[in-house]
Amino acid sequence: MPGTTSLFIPGPTNVPHAVRQAIDCAMEDQRAPDLPAFTLPLYEDVKKVFKSAQGQVFVFPASGTGGWEAAITNTLSPGDKVLASRFGQFSHLWIDLCERHALDVEIVDVPWGEGTPVETYAERLAADTAGKIKAVLVCHNETATGVTSDVAAVRKLLDDLDHPALLLVDGVSSIASIDFRMDEWGVDIAVSGSQKGFMLPAGMAILCVSEKALAARREARLHRCYFDFEDMIKTNDGGFFPYTPPLHMLRGLRASVDLLLGEGLENIFARHHRLAEGVRRAVSAWGLDLCAKEPKWYSDTVSAIKVPDGFDGNAIVKLAYLRYGLSFGLGLSEVAGKVFRIGHLGDLNEIMLLSGLSGAEMAMRDMGLPIEAGSGVAAAQEYYRATAKPVDFSRELALAV
Ligand SMILES: Cc1ncc(COP(=O)(O)O)c(C=O)c1O
């Protein structure tokens, strides 16, 4: 199809031009003596994206799933108890991965559309007087349902109870897009992937690990080899890698981190909030509801939109793609067919998003949903106009041309 790709899935996200150019480089010598001058400052700057001064960054050639595996295999032993909640496909998959690694997962099932149940976590942790729970898992942003959880509240209850469990956080679809504070929230391992807020192609699991979690590797008996922190530490500290690193991706990461720090994390969070709010205005103008049940759960990176009974959300997604070359996220697992998802993260602005909302309206109307043409787009437009940065262009107006 001519024109640009219209990617409104919640990852992979658009890769900015500067990042694409940085990746398009000649192959390099991964043992070149000047490589540490590139990698060491890069890792220091990646830490800033996690808002961490104390943590250590690890970048594995993998995707977010590899990051989950690295997090648990480096800190836990077979049979260890972990506390986790399941409220979407990704929180479910992390639990599944833990179970396949022979961890004893205490699962709290939560209706899809809600997030991490802090009160239930408090009860379970308070009951655990013997300290059997070794790690608490939090999926910060459940991409399947568009729900964001309160990581700081989980930290607070661990502190209030003086519970020693590690706090392991899936930040795959939150980090570098919505507020995340590794050190302030006392997160022990934060897992991210390259293809969402970092605006890179898929292919890197990016982790930040606290000193406490690093120390846990000495006792952790789960099998690990490729994802062993130990091997990474031995070589990373000098600026090198235990196996062939994806250097072109690391060049891209340099460009991405420069863009992120150049825009400023707070500005990025505000931009994502504003873009998301425009989408939410559109959804309400369509007369539809989000899967996220309450505003406190609303995600600023992805909106899962419920379709009325009798309609198939996945058919809307397929039609949008085949007819208009427009990609939205399918409903996954328990919500398959019941929702479709609009990803609004990464290298994105309001005009791009309006084209996605416009295409969503067209596809929904094509499928027979009773959506008034232009209603959602108009609601988002008005919100974006009302919240646009003031521009003084009096000088430009005074010019002849
Ligand atoms: C919240 C969350 N966690 C984990 C993953 C898994 O990451 P990956 O597909 O990069 O392995 C995803 C993927 O979309 C995700 O959204």
Structure commentary:
With 401 residues, the chain is α/β, with parallel strands linked by helices. It is built from 14 helices and 13 strands. The strands form four sheets. Strands 2-10-9-8-5-3-4 form a seven-stranded mixed sheet, with helices on both faces. The protein has a two-stranded parallel sheet with strand order 1-12. A hairpin with a 4-residue loop joins β6 (141-142) and β7. α5 runs parallel beside α6 (151-161) and α12 (350-366) runs antiparallel to α13 (375-386). The two termini are 36 Å apart. The structure holds pyridoxal-5'-phosphate (PLP). Pyridoxal-5'-phosphate is lined by residues 11, 63-65, 90, 139, 141, 143, 170, 172-173, 193, 202.
Topology:
Layout: E1 6-8, H1 17-23, H2 35-49, E2 56-61, H3 64-73, E3 81-86, H4 89-100, E4 104-109, H5 118-127, E5 133-139, E6 141-142, E7 147-148, H6 151-161, E8 166-170, E9 189-193, E10 204-209, H7 211-216, H8 229-236, H9 247-263, H10 265-285, E11 302-306, H11 313-324, E12 326-328, E13 339-343, H12 350-366, H13 375-386, H14 394-398
Parallel strand pairs: 1-12, 3-4, 3-5, 5-8, 8-9
Antiparallel strand pairs: 2-10, 6-7, 9-10, 11-13
The structure holds pyridoxal-5'-phosphate.
Residues 11, 63-65, 90, 139, 141, 143, 170, 172-173, 193, 202 line the site of pyridoxal-5'-phosphate.
What labels would you give this structure?
alpha/beta, two-stranded parallel sheet, 14 helices, binds pyridoxal-5'-phosphate, globular, seven-stranded mixed β-sheet, about 400 residues
